[in-house]
Specification:
With 322 residues, the chain is an alpha+beta fold. The chain folds into two domains: 4-136, 2-Layer Sandwich (60s Ribosomal Protein L30, Chain: A); 151-303, Alpha-Beta Complex (Phosphoribosyl-aminoimidazole Synthetase, Chain A, domain 2). The chain is built from nine helices and ten strands. A six-stranded mixed beta sheet has the order 6-8-5-9-7-10, with helices on both faces. A four-stranded mixed beta sheet has the order 1-4-2-3. Helix 2 packs parallel to helix 6 and helix 4 (161-169) packs across helix 5. It is globular and about 65 Å long. It binds adenosine-5'-diphosphate and magnesium ion (MG). Residues 8, 12, 25-28, 86, 88, 116, 118-121 line the site of adenosine-5'-diphosphate (ADP).
Length: 322
């Protein structure tokens, strides 16, 4: 039988990262030495079996996603990831599951050069909670409250394929196996836009930002509310995922505007910064698309490519009403 401490040592404790002045796993607390003059950005995200992922989900993909959704929050603030903690409730100490999970999680951690510095492990229904720590220069963090009338609204990458895959799994729509598999890559292994977020913050290009986890319309709504502004969004300009792009216009509009699980960035920037935004995005190989503009009049107006108003009822995801 694998004990709690064997489990931590075998699957989560790794050789110390030479470049970081921290005390890692093994004591009552981890110690982080902040870079002088930097602010610490902190965020937690939890994944619960049956709520955020299907029972029996592949462990390596879960390891990736649990860390990716947290890194996406740091990206949305423009912070540089430094380390993370992992609180894990497991129904049993299954070696295959632990090996897969830690492999998927550490592959992404290594890609971002960050260290697992501690956590907690207990028996219980499968629940994964990661807390990430990042650094950002004072005054540079991308807040939800900074959008101003006249700003452009931008989206990184593409939207909607994760929602399309979910529809395929739930048999809400018919999909061939190859399309489902391709779309599901976006659902299972989202790409946190860390490099783009950091660059937007460092260059002072974005006036506000949020990562899209519950659907664009709802998440953009948080920016509008906290900034005290409104917006017009061109639904036909929204960049649809590679699989969703083959479906009809109604589905494209619905799933790009209110799909969820995209983990792309939605950010605003002054129109005068357009060329700089495009250059910054190109320098980190992250496509960005301009999809609307911020206006003084409150509310979100949805329009088509010709600028005609669309009257769509789009709901963003809410755990207590869904
Ligand atoms: P405590 O009893 O003080 O809560 P634990 O016995 O739970 O400490 O954990 C022992 C050490 O292992 C601590 O340093 C803790 O941060 C670390 N740890 C526990 N679970 C995990 C995990 N899932 N991932 C990483 N580190 C963990
Ligand atoms: Mg403990």
């Amino acid at each position: 039988m694998l004990s709690e401490f064997d489990l931590i040592q075998e699957y989560f404790q790794r050789p110390r990262h030479p470049a970081r002045a921290t005390l890692g796993i093994g004591d009552d607390c981890a110690l982080l030495t902040p870079t002088p003059g930097m602010q610490t950005a902190i965020s937690s995200d939890m994944l619960v079996e049956g709520r955020h992922f299907f029972a029996g989900e592949d462990a390596a993909r879960l390891g990736h996603k649990a860390l990716a959704v947290n890194l996406s929050d740091l990206a949305a603030m423009g912070a540089r990831p430094v380390g993370f903690t992992l609180a894990l409730a497991l129904p049993s100490a299954d070696r295959d599951w632990l090996a897969g999970f830690s492999h998927g999680m550490f592959a992404l951690a290594d890609a971002h050069d960050i260290e697992l510095i501690g956590g907690d492990t207990t028996k219980g229904p499968l629940t994964i909670c990661i807390t990430v720590f990042g650094e950002v220069r004072p005054g540079q963090a991308l807040r939800r409250s900074g959008a101003r009338a006249g700003d452009d609204i931008w989206i990184s990458g593409t939207l909607g394929d994760a929602r399309l895959a979910l529809g395929g799994y739930r048999l809400e729509l018919s999909m061939d196996a190859a399309s489902l598999q391709a779309a599901a890559v976006r659902l299972h292994t989202p790409t946190p836009r860390v490099a783009l977020g950091m660059l937007l913050a460092q260059q002072g290009l974005a006036s506000s930002a949020i990562d899209i986890s519950d659907g664009l319309v709802g998440d953009l709504g948080h920016i509008l509310k906290q900034s005290g502004v409104g917006a017009t969004l061109d639904l036909d300009a929204l960049p649809a995922g590679a699989v969703l792009v083959t479906r009809d216009a109604a589905m494209r509009r619905a799933y790009t505007a209110a799909g969820g699980d995209d983990y792309e960035l939605c950010f605003t920037a002054p129109a005068s910064a357009r060329a700089d935004v495009l250059a910054a995005a190109a320098s980190v190989a992250t496509p960005v698309t301009r999809v609307g503009s911020i206006e003084a009049a409150p509310g979100l107006r949805l329009v088509d490519a010709a600028g005609a108003a669309l009257d769509l009822q789009l709901e963003s995801f809410d755990h207590f009403t869904s």
